[in-house]
Amino acid sequence: MEQYEREHLGALRRIAPECMVLLKSNGDFPLAAPQKIALYGNGARHTLKGGRGSGDVNVEYFPSVEQGLENAGCIVTTKAWLDAYEAAYEAGKNPFQTWLREKIAAEGMDRLMENLSIVMPEPDYDIPLDGEGDTAIYVLARQCGEGVDRGAVPGDLFLSKTEIRDIMTLQKEYRKFLLVLNTACYVDISPVAAYIDNILLLSQPGMTVGDSFADVLLGRAYPSGKMAATWAAWNDYAEISEFGNREDTRYREGIYVGYRWFDTVGTKPLFPFGFGLGYTTFMLTVGAVSITKTVASISVTVENTGSFAGKEVVQLYVSLPQGKLDQPKHVLASFVKTEELQPGETQAVTLSFDMADLLSYDATTCSRILERGEYILWVGNSSRNTVLAGKIMLERTVTLEKVTPVAGETDFTDWKPMCGDRTVKECAVLTVDPDDFTEKSFVCPSPDDDAMCIAKKLTDEELCYLCTGEFENEGSKQVIGDSALTVAGAAGESTGRFRHLGVQSIIMADGPAGLRLARECGRDENGVFPRTPPTDLRVLELIPEDMKKVLLATLSGFKKEERSGETYYQNCTAIPVATALAQSWNIDAAEMCGDIVREEMMRFGVDVWLAPAMNIQRNGLCGRNFEYYSEDPLLSGKMAAAVTRGVQRDGRHGAMIKHFICNNQETNRFRTSSMVNERTMRDIYCRGFEIAVKEAAPIAVMTSYNLVNGVHTCENRGLLETMLRGEWGFAGVVTSDYLTGDKTPSDEINKYRKFRAVPSLQAGLDLVMPGGKAHYEQMLAALKDGTLDRETVETHAARMIGCVWKLRGKGQKEDV
Ligand code: BGC
Predict the structure, then answer these.
(1) Ranges for all domains in the chain classified under CATH 3.20.20.300
(2) Starting at the edge strand that comes first in sequence, how are the strands of the sheet with 295-304 ordered?
(3) 3-class DSSP state of 295
(4) Which residues pair with 530 in a beta bridge?
(5) Is there a contact between 96 and 104 (Cβ–Cβ < 8 Å)?
(6) Which of 205, 436, 553, 715 is the most buried (most CB within 10 A)?
(7) Fold of 449-516+574-808
(8) Which residues line ligand 1 (CB under 6 A)?
(9) What is the pLDDT of residues 263-291, one digit of tens each?
């Protein structure tokens, strides 16, 4: 292991416990010393460090919970159970694969990739629970990944019959029992939650997972995470919110996502947003609110009142006035995580927020406003455990921004709650002067002048090469995460044809759980290549012959290439998946993860990281929720901004936030339309992106596969030019998500047609990824016949050149 690997793993091991949320505790844990452990559950030996798909990171090794316990000196007494489970899982594959084979044959090529992404639900089995020892641990794991949503079925979103039975039995049979949830996605644990004394949401904290778990179990570290999303019984989620429609999915619940829904309607979740226990207890003493101009602050003293070290997350929520606009019961406005506090130790923290950041979109005036009335501040350690901290009065409604609607039309109005009485008891009221708010004027950044000069001198052909990813021959033959030519296993790169002009290619690799590259690689006279195919070729067995042929002809990842040449390794660190990182509520930890990624980008020659992914966790069924931070835009935005700062710290590496916007489901992901009203889109789904853009200036933004209100996001000029660039001042490049073109399902079976390169460039997209001849030719033809105006393409090309210069240094202009 090289020095950088050791350092990165060491750093990860320090922060992983911060990502774990202790959901229930009766004080039986931590254990005082290593001992015999009766270890059960599908995640015990097959522990998950993260999820599947482009968000997976190819690592050399990571310890399972079983190995972590053994490394720490425990004796696992259930080897027979763990072996028998593996056999039961293998046996369960037969019926599943038969079902899948038939489904693939019946649904054909158009749904092939979606079907191949389906995760097998946990099978049922009957294995005696007879491990020795006083303490039992059951590790329940759930695998999720891109390309398909989860199943509302036992063994996936729900617990299987076997899991319920075994968990309940272990709780009764052993003196101490801990249920460990090795999932970064929601699982409905309501059938067991009330009966189990100790539950730890281990999540998927990256490649020290097993060792980090042992650290926490044995009290060598303590969990200090808090929920980044509300977990409730599945039946308690908002029924009005549609999900998974192949054509149009209506976001009828409007702004009432996650705790905004639960806390407003008063339904008690199992584990609220922001909730998490530790090995100790804390007392919060809330000081007075103060206000300077428009910034409100409140000091809180946190005391560790228990007998173990710990960290607390202090959260500030604000109830906005119910005026012309309806508002949720409260929204997160600020949070701070304390330092490590020893028993008896105290720390004073200050929470502040700018009132202007509480703005809401008002459709009647097309503006972003703060309504007159009382803003009520609450402080606590979850959305459900707060105390009244103060009130701020705004005497007059203020308009902060006049904007242009960009979302498009829907055929429904958003759900609104019955607005009950929300008066709260008397307390000190401060006032904020409406005149202290200034209405914002927008400045849309223009491309670098020198870059524009170069672009102007390029031929039409050259301009088009700059606006599409580098491709060979026909191009677009690659699968996700394997399109780059220069760095093995990187996701893609921009054109390298203009090196003589000082414009290098930009190498892009996936995230968000670390840097996704091929680990074992080869180098021969034709260049570099991954030694192991990015796709598990065993899936080919499930595909009928005719479909197999098409697949092999079009996607290189499904071919086994025998190449010789020297072998080398790219060892990258799998950091916590985004949800786990958000559960740390630790901005410094997030920034440090960005540093880890940047150092590895530098080592392996990657310029842009295709992350953070920061869509809102709208529904527990979304297959990619683990790649996203939270149900809350503020927490998502702050986390993404912190990671971006880490990645971009040296000014030579860039982050690409994604997927812009409303990529909240995977079902029919290339052609489904998220139907969402302007206010909801802006206040919930765009807000995190806006925070990340304004706070951390990511070098790039990736549009989403899905459409919004019937328009592909990469073809929506309002989104890209008016809002992202115009209102938010985004100065980087906008790229499409990958394979948005020729390899996606056919137009005939879909309500919406494929995305097109030409309207996308007209709408503000700079770069079509991963690149292909078809897109290049479409652009060129449109430029030649005048459908695509040359100046538009020059602007995109200039932005690309500007981006290269930023990351690689400014080119030699004298060559031009
Ligand atoms: C995913 C992106 C990813 C890209 C490149 C797409 O399928 O949606 O998140 O960055 O592939 O691998």
Answers:
(1) 449-516+574-808
(2) 282-292, 295-304, 346-354
(3) strand
(4) 521
(5) no
(6) 205
(7) TIM Barrel (3.20.20)
(8) 54, 146, 480-481, 491, 510, 610, 658, 737-738
(9) 999 999 999 999 999 999 999 999 999 99
